[in-house]
Amino acid sequence: MNDDALVAALIEIERHVGHGGWDQPARLFALVPTAELIAAEPTLAGQLERPGGLPEGALSSIEQEGFHSGDDLLDALARITWPATVHGCALAVERLFVPPHVENDIPDDPDAATSFVAAHPERRDVRVVVGVTREGDGYGLARLKSDPDDLLAAGDLVPGLGAALTHTLTP
């Protein structure tokens, strides 16, 4: 597995989630080597193989339909463990944020903070897709609702979320 395979899987997830528009709940995905998935389910070969063959280490994402994060995403992730057949995982989540010059005005109370950010005229909607592997690779993508043609990317885009996902892969 390599970083390119992880990034490619995250881009595919972001496109998939993006087709559903905005205002979606958090969505969780298992990442499995595509070659292993095809070996286990040969009927998927036609859907997963690419002209010229699979890239080395290609990953396929499998959405976890039963995932419901509720009010506390990190708490929901803390209760998840993956079997050894899952080589990584990814999460797509939308959040609101405000520019740094507004952060000192955010109330300490969580409910008041949520209301404050949601009502602030400078708030921005962002969708992030963060993925990690058992080998310790991690990457993140972000798309602003106000700038849908740009996809931001970095290895440590949302480090706290990456750490929470890594914990789900720890036996």
Task: List its traits.
single chain; 171 residues; alpha+beta; six-stranded antiparallel beta sheet; 6 helices; 6 strands; 31% helix
Q: Can you characterise this structure?
A:
- The chain has one domain (3-168).
- Helices cover 31% and strands 27% of the residues.
- It has six helices and six strands; from the N terminus they run αβααβαβαβββα.
- It has helices at residues 3-18, 34-40, 45-48, 73-78, 110-119, 159-168, and strands at 27-33, 59-63, 88-97, 124-133, 138-144, 147-154.
- A six-stranded antiparallel sheet has the order 2-1-3-4-5-6.
- The longest helix is centred in the N-terminal third of the chain and has 16 residues, at 3-18.
- The radius of gyration is 17 Å and the shape is globular.
Question: Average pLDDT, to the nearest integer?
Answer: 89
Percentage of residues in helical conformation: 25-40%
* Major beta sheet summary: 6 strands, antiparallel
Secondary structure category: alpha+beta
Question: How would you write the strand order of the largest sheet?
Answer: 2-1-3-4-5-6
- Find the count of extended strands (DSSP E, 2+ residues): 6
Number of discrete helical segments: 6
Rg over CA atoms: 17 Å
Tell me the number of structural domains.
1
- Beta content: 25-35%
Basic shape: globular
Q: Distance N terminus to C terminus? A: 20 Å
Unreliable stretches (pLDDT < 50, length at least 5) are none
The helix/strand series, from N terminus to C terminus, equals HEHHEHEHEEEH
